[in-house]
Amino acid sequence: MRAFGGAGRIGIFGGAFALFGLLFFIKMLMLLAMAFAVWFFCRDTAAEVAGRAREAFGAELLRGFIIAVVLPSAIFFAFMTVIGIPFAIFGLGIFAALVLYAAAYLPIIAGSLVLHRWRPRPAVDWLTIVVGVLALMVVNVIPFIGWLVSLVLFWVSLGIVGNDMKSRFWD
Fold first, then answer.
1. What is the distance between the terminal CA atoms of the chain, rounded to a whole angstrom?
2. Is 153 in contact with 106 (CB distance < 8 Å)?
3. What is the pTM of this model?
4. Are residues 53 and 113 in contact, defined by beta-carbon separation less than 8 angstroms?
5. What is the DSSP letter of 83?
6. pLDDT level of residue 1 (50, 70, 90 thresholds)
7. 8-29 pLDDT, tens per residue?
8. Helix or strand run (H / E) with residue 156
9. pLDDT at residue 43 in the model
10. How far is CA 10 from the centre of its chain?
11. How is the chain split among helix, strand and coil, in percent rounded to 5?
């Protein structure tokens, strides 16, 4: 007989760790697939995003924080009036598109920042994406600091994507 239960029993902790490992692996594959799709279809934009993350990290962080706070607040207040409901629905779609677009560029930005010391120019290739995904997955395991680092990187990505969409549609 084994020390932790009978033969063939995993226990509740073994099942939880197996589920956590499976979800961790699925998240890693999803990040890889999303980043490779963005890199495959938008190579020039990916290099531009990586360069802007290196050059103006603080400005893009502030812009992303403002987008993450102001846009949902404006959507919430627009839902309070009957006239604002169509605008709120439109704003909700824009915000969802910004978040998905920013999440797709997150591994590229992380990989570019990690490889910054060894690559003076912001070149985006398969190594940048793999290093970015691995860096994000390792950082996410750290209890509080990892969540904070991921949030900061997401705000940087959101700021870059928001500025990119503004320049495409309003300039």
1. 72
2. yes
3. 0.84
4. yes
5. T
6. very low
7. 566 677 777 788 888 889 989 9
8. helix 145-170
9. 86
10. 34
11. 80, 0, 20
